[in-house]
Amino acid sequence: MMEELQKYRKISLDFRRNSSNMLNTKYNDGLLYLVRFKEFIDKSDIIRQILEDLWIDLPQDFNERLISEDSNSGWCYFILI
Question: In the structure, what pLDDT confidence band is assigned to residue 80 with cuts at 50, 70 and 90?
Fold first, then answer.
């Protein structure tokens, strides 16, 4: 039980650190921190499962629908059909 609690605390700390980095991104950083945050979520089974449960209607090709035209444009298209 204690080991599991420590594991959740570490995941929580990592999530807060990564999300804070993403939210404090400067324009010149482009999508760097957004990509890092997405990779963190993909690698964390617990967080990914929580999000998948919440986003029932999220298309399977979600990654392909997040399109950036170039490194300076930020979020160009984010269309969920």
Answer: very low
Average pLDDT over residues 47-73: 64
Q: Whole-model pTM?
A: 0.60
Burial (CB count <10 Å: 0-12, 13-18, 19+), residue 79: exposed
Cα separation values, 26 from 22, 32, 80, Å: 9, 10, 26
| Number of domains within the chain | 1
CA distances from 55 to 2, 4, 10, 26, 32 (A): 30, 25, 24, 28, 24
Structural domain span for residue 67: 2-78
Partners of residue 24 on adjacent β-strands: none
Q: What is the DSSP string of 35-63?
A: HHHHHHHHH-HHHHHHHHHH-TT--TTHH
Q: What's the distance, CA 6 to chain centroid? A: 22
Residue 63 is which amino acid?
A: N
